[in-house]
Design a protein that fits this description.
The protein is 0% helix and 57% strand. The protein is mainly beta. The radius of gyration is 16 Å and the shape is globular.
Length: 115
């Protein structure tokens, strides 16, 4: 029996953006929709990491998300916060906790700033 419990309540609404693929001049491109299904999750950020690469200053925000298991959440999806509209990309394939199809956990990141 699994003893996994989520680290917090699923109270943060996010919008799942699942891409469709189109081919433009022989190159496959991802196209994200403007809207999608709303998912309630536990969304925890840990501040941003400052980077200065080639004289371009940027901040990389990362967050951990825990939610109910959904097979349509994949590593090529994006997550949009319902209240602020901030868009994060899913960094890794979501982990199906204990392979029970009950909870999933994954990391997201958002890069902002620049010249």
């Amino acid at each position: 029996m699994s003893s996994y419990k989520p680290s917090g309540p699923f109270v943060t609404p996010v919008i799942l953006l699942t891409p469709t693929y189109t081919t433009v001049k022989g190159v496959r491109k991802k196209v994200y929709p403007a809207d999608g299904p709303i998912i309630n999750c536990c969304f925890k950020t840990y501040g941003g990491t400052e980077k200065n690469i080639n004289d371009v200053y940027s901040i990389e925000d990362t967050a951990n998300i825990e939610t109910w298991y959904r097979p349509d959440i994949k590593s090529d999806c994006q997550i949009k916060l319902a209240d602020t509209g901030a868009v994060y990309e899913v960094m890794n394939e979501p982990e199906n906790i204990d392979m029970r199809n009950q909870y999933c956990k994954f990391k997201v990141r958002r890069v902002k700033g620049g010249a």
